Amino acid sequence: MQPTKIDHIGIAVSNLDEAIKVYEALGLNCTGIETVEEQKVRVAFFPCGDSELELLESTSPDGPIARFIEKKGEGIQHLAIRVPSIEKALVEMKEKGIRLIDEQPRYGAGGARIAFLHPKSTGGVLIELSER
Ligand code: ZN
Q: What CATH number was assigned to the domain covering residues 5-131?
């Protein structure tokens, strides 16, 4: 499936405004904030070289980010790998016996088409495949 780069790293934060200050202190610029209703998340984008950091704040106590923070605390939540074709990547992963969370691509922040692989199949890392 020839991944082309690390698209972004998703970081779960409990307070987006406070977290933004930390990454701005690092010299990075926030290029936008988007709410993805379907995933109950507010996302701040910080391009860094050829990749990006995404800060993720839950918009609801029952959202996936809120549940992640409840279980594991704030921190790195997922790793996104850019692929040229998400459909092809999903077929290939399935053939190789990797468990999928998303059988079909869905809408991701920044207009990407995304799908998650199950961390039980990937050594505990939540991997997102991303096509833009
Ligand atoms: Zn992501």
A: 3.10.180.10
